[in-house]
């Protein structure tokens, strides 16, 4: 992926990792379109970053995704980077006497179904470009799950597997397929306490390392891995999987 001169769409671009990378990529001379549910945040971010575009999108609504994709294709025919970053996590207790699956259904729609739908809608536009990138945010939890968030962890494992398959299918096309697998980062993704948790990687440090990886093309087999996430990525290979799973179970 070239670090500048792109037209980039980022879902979940109004907070956390999505916002940080949107602003960093905008500063590198890219046309950046951010999508999110909250118009107030879209207006705030684009106001602070002249030239950035904000478009509202509710990824839990399949009809809204279709309308959004059609609008993007019409307004930005040179779109060459799709960064599926929107995601949610919920704690789930399968030891309870009554287990609700409502959260699981919502997580799957946001983290998996919407990603597949938007990618399917915009891949023809990406393939039409001389050089393009499909990037999806997974997680270190794709490789060692967090027991208190089983569905979230499983959706990220699904995306890892799905991206491997897409990378093979698209190997002779102009589309580069990248997986962004963050570690535990200081954002409010899991609540306000996560943003100040000393166990989490500072967001500014994470953003800087990701940008360096992109700029220097330090990408192996399509995976963007900062040093903090590598113990999770290679846990099974290194024989530390059970130890980390137990650690996360007591987190």
Descriptive terms for the model:
13% strand; seven-stranded parallel beta sheet; alpha/beta; 9 helices; 251 residues; Rossmann fold
What report would you give on this structure?
This protein has 251 residues and is an alpha/beta fold. The protein is 45% helix and 13% strand. The chain has 9 helices and 7 strands, in the order E-H-E-H-E-H-E-H-E-H-E-H-E-H-H-H. Helix 1 crosses helix 6 and helix 3 packs parallel to helix 4. The longest helix is centred in the middle third of the chain and has 26 residues. The radius of gyration is 18 Å and the shape is globular.
Count of DSSP H/I helices: 9
- Helical percent range? 40-55%
User: CATH superfamily assignment?
Assistant: NAD(P)-binding Rossmann-like Domain
* Largest sheet report: 7 strands, parallel
How are the elements arranged and paired?
Blueprint: E1 7-11, H1 16-27, E2 31-36, H2 39-48, E3 53-56, H3 62-75, E4 81-84, H4 102-127, E5 132-137, H5 150-169, E6 175-180, H6 203-216, E7 223-224, H7 230-233, H8 235-238, H9 241-249
Parallel strand pairs: 1-2, 1-4, 2-3, 4-5, 5-6, 6-7
Helix pairs in contact: 1-6, 3-4, 4-5
């Amino acid at each position: 992926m070239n670090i500048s001169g792109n037209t980039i769409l980022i879902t979940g671009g109004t907070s956390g990792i999505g916002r940080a990378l949107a602003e960093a990529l905008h500063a590198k001379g890219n046309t950046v379109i951010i999508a999110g549910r909250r118009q107030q945040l879209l207006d705030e971010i684009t106001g602070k970053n002249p030239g950035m575009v904000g478009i509202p999108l509710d990824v839990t609504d399949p009809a809204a995704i279709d309308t959004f994709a059609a609008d993007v294709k019409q307004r930005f025919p040179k779109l060459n980077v799709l960064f599926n970053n929107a995601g949610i996590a919920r704690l789930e207790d399968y030891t309870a006497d009554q287990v609700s699956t409502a959260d699981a259904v919502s997580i799957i729609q946001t983290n998996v179904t919407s990603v597949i739908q938007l990618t399917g809608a915009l891949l023809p536009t990406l393939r039409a470009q001389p050089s393009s990138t499909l990037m999806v945010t997974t997680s270190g939890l794709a490789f060692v799950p967090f027991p208190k968030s089983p569905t979230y962890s499983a959706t990220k494992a699904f995306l890892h597997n799905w991206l491997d398959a897409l990378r093979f299918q698209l190997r002779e096309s102009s589309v580069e397929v990248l997986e962004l697998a963050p570690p535990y980062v200081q954002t409010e993704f899991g609540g306000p306490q996560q943003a100040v948790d000393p166990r989490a990687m500072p967001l500014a440090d994470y953003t800087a390392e990701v940008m360096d990886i992109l700029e220097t093309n330090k990408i192996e087999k399509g995976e963007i891995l900062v040093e903090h996430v590598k113990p999770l990525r290679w846990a099974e290979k290194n024989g530390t999987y059970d130890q980390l799973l137990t650690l996360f179970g007591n987190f």
